[in-house]
Write a structure and sequence with these properties.
By secondary structure, the protein is mainly alpha-helical. The protein has one domain. The longest helix has 29 residues. The radius of gyration is 19 Å and the shape is globular.
């Protein structure tokens, strides 16, 4: 039996969740890939900084909307649209499936259905719309003491989404048999070291993305964790566990939830002075 390695799992995570050839750095075992999700939030630093960095660079040339859409495209190229594939399958499966077997069958189907298309359109309309509104608040915030640049919000949303989605592997069994997995790997529960590191990285990014004047409103940054727990309860009831597709879907939905939470903080502070 191969010995489990944190370094191997980290390299496996970087190989699995990005298109970069990290797998060339060392020989990876099945056990490394089973532990890969443990390091998802840590690898998320790379995808988050890619999104924020590309946005900042492109915003020097284009409007906010164009820069953000192109930056999202850059992140999709980096990840191979891995999470977006899960989101589309999630919408198709739970939108079109009436029972557990049908939901799982639809999610495994490689065809893109109407629920996935509508879900993608609504998701990115919400993402860009909320980000555009946040940018208006950010222009005021950065002029105040303790204000933060908008790209930090993108970084925190990416990392918080990954950490929140990771909880389903901690709380749910795998919904299929191992041989039915698309990647032929079933993720293991996260051990203490990567879980703690992922928490520190995610919460650190959250604190950097929120102005000091938010005060207790910063507790709303934990909203993605609440959404994740609600969706985990839904998955348990509908299909009895998680799949790789639900991991990607909860990641992006939790990311969107974080943007909504930050927008709510700005709105509450602006309108009610909370």
């Amino acid at each position: 039996m191969n010995k489990r390695s944190h370094l191997g799992a980290l390299v496996a995570a970087a190989s699995l969740f990005t298109r970069l050839p990290f797998w060339r750095l060392r020989s990876l075992t099945k056990e490394d890939y089973e532990d890969a999700l443990s390091w998802w939030p840590v690898v998320g630093v790379l995808t988050a900084l890619t999104l924020a960095g590309c946005y900042w660079l492109l915003a020097q040339l284009f409007s906010m909307q164009v820069a953000l859409v192109l930056a999202l495209g850059c992140r999709m190229i980096l990840t191979g649209a891995f999470h977006e594939d899960g989101l589309g399958d999630f919408f198709d499966g739970f939108g079109g499936g009436r029972d557990r077997e049908r939901v799982l069958a639809i999610m495994k189907d490689s065809h893109v259905g109407s629920y996935a298309v509508l879900g993608f359109v609504l998701y990115y309309l919400c993402y860009v719309g909320m980000a555009q509104t946040l940018l208006l608040y950010d222009e005021i915030s950065t002029a105040l003491e303790g204000g933060v640049p908008f790209p930090w919000v993108l970084v925190a949303a990416d990392l918080m989404g990954k950490f929140a989605a990771q909880l389903q592997v901690q709380l749910l069994p795998y919904a299929r048999r191992e041989e039915q997995s698309k990647t032929q790997v079933v993720y293991r529960r996260t051990s203490a070291v990567p879980l703690l590191l992922g928490l520190v990285v995610s919460l650190g990014a959250v604190l950097l993305s929120l102005p000091e004047e938010f005060g207790w409103l910063r507790l709303l940054a934990l909203t993605p964790l609440g959404l994740s727990l609600l969706l985990i309860s839904y998955l348990r009831r509908r299909i009895g566990g998680y799949t790789g597709d639900t991991c990607g879907a909860l990641c992006l939905l939790s990311e969107l939830c974080y943007l909504a939470a930050v927008l709510a903080m700005y709105a509450l502070l602006d309108r009610y002075g909370l």
